[in-house]
Amino acid sequence: MPAKLSVNLNAIAMLRNRRDLPWPSVTGLGRIALEAGAHGLTVHPRPDQRHIRFTDLPDIRALIDDEFPDAEFNIEGYPSGDFLALVERTEPEQVTLVPDDPEQPTSDHGWDFVANLDMLKAIVARLKKSGARVSLFCDPDADAEQLGAAKATGADRIELYTGPYGACHEDPKKAAALVEVLGRTADAAHDLGLGVNAGHDLTVENLPALAKRLPALAEVSIGHGLTADALEYGMAGAVTRFLGALGR
Questions:
Q1: Over the stretch 73-95, which tens digit does the pLDDT of each residue have?
Q2: What CATH number belongs to 4-245?
Q3: Residues that are catalytic
């Protein structure tokens, strides 16, 4: 079955935050995305609240619970004490843990699972008590030792960082080579019993090759590229285009 699509709302929130006004509406555009067939919504609430605000989370949770009970809420973030408390209050279906410094503009690398094994194992156990699926951000070329440590954390999935692949939009040969790197990492993860998500700089143009090489890909979360697409095609049109690129 083709991968599911989770729409990341951060870019919409960042645009809203340029003014002290309630538009564009994070929940309003989230509703349009889910009505158009998206399978879930993703947010990454950073400590400085420069895009998604902590106050957005209850509204998104209520939108899904009240109108789209089959959809999933995915919250990404570095597992600080404040983040974990925020997640436990919100009760998302999935939590994606990233190794970001709070000052980073965006996620740009995966975990060193070996070095952080004990920390991640404790945090994964805590999150799974709340009923959440746990995914861990992973470098595209993670080796067997790193993937073994990811499995040892107790996490359910990894999310492959696809930023280097997305950056090859003008170099088809390099893009094809990076798809194969991602594919080998996904294959090894699946062999260990880990589910595989993917995200970062994915577009309508580069999704088909990724989906073909990773046929067991569970989910992609897409924000920047889909939001840019929505400026041209509208949110519903952009979701339809991305679902088509996934083979749905």
A1: 999 999 999 999 999 999 999 99
A2: 3.20.20.70
A3: 44, 76, 200
129-160: pLDDT as tens digits = 999 999 999 999 999 999 999 999 999 999 99
pLDDT over 70 at 106, yes or no: no
CA distance 75 to 134: 10
Report the C-alpha gap between 95 and 115 in whole angstroms.
Answer: 21
The beta-strand segments (E) located in 61-155 are 72-77, 94-97, 133-138
DSSP state of 50: S
* DSSP run (H or E) holding 10: helix 10-16
Give residue 109's pLDDT: 84
Angle, helices 56-67/81-90, rounded to nearest 10 degrees: 30
Q: What is the DSSP letter of 139?
A: -
Cα separation, 109 vs 92, in Å, equals 23
What is the percent of the chain with per-residue pLDDT over 90, rounded to a whole number? 95
CA–CA dist 78, 62 (Å, integer):
24
**Structure tokens belonging to residue 33:** 């995305």
Strand partners, 95: 75, 134
Report the alpha-carbon distance of residue 222 to residue 163 in Å, rounded: 11
Please say whether the dihedral angle defined by the alpha carbons of residues 33, 35, 40 and 41, taken in this order, is positive or negative: positive
Domain segments of the chain: what residues?
4-245
Cis peptide before 24 (omega within 30 of 0): yes
